[in-house]
Amino acid sequence: MAKSEYFIPLDFKKLDEESMKQESRDFYRFMSRRRTVRDFSDQDVPQAVLQNALLAAGTAPSGANMQPWHFVVVQDPEAKRRIREAAEIEERKLYDHRASDEWLQAIAPLGTDANKPFLEKAPALIAIFLKKFSVDKSGKKHKNYYTAESVGIATGVLITALHRAGLTTLTHTPSPMKFLSKILKRPDNERPFLLLVCGYPANDAVVPDIKRKTLDEISTFV
Q1: Full-model pTM
Q2: DSSP secondary-structure letter at 204?
Q3: What's the alpha-carbon Rg for the chain, to the nearest Å?
Q4: What 8-state DSSP symbol labels residue 145?
Q5: Rounded distance, CA 196 to CA 128, Å?
Q6: Tens digit of pLDDT for each residue in 137-155?
Q7: 152 exposure class (CB count in 10 Å sphere: 0-12, 13-18, 19+)
């Protein structure tokens, strides 16, 4: 196949330098207000907002364009209850036995523990699954490439899209997470990657007083 038969013109609008600088400043300031939240309101969120955020996540780059992700939006109270119960079992094991003293000391200022009420309180949980391989309609398996990198990027886009829409999020990664596959009845070619809690913050929500690293600390220009 000739290249011209597979490719289409790029949809791209070039900005002048001052506009680029302003856009980058505005976006940084906007994203600097993004915080992980653990105190959620139970107010429902518009379904269209969740759908649009997922569509945005689906635009993320992926290895060979295999798009090795699947998002399960959980809003059913009973399903959320089951997820909370299973997650707290693993969390108690973590805090009581699995976690090192160093790890427990590192998270101590955040005030976290094995209790995860937000898994029931928040209006939506988004379980993100990574597809090790895809299966077409004929049942044939197709290997996916750079799956962790691809799904990680898509997750970042999803978090950004929800923040842009006026919602707050929490990334939750109980380990192991196999219970998500069972509760949500996902196929064997998928494994749980991350559980994203999203919704409006509670009226009395508070967040830790943390600081982000400076540009010099996180980057090097060569």
Answers
A1: 0.94
A2: T
A3: 20
A4: B
A5: 7
A6: 898 999 999 999 999 999 9
A7: middle
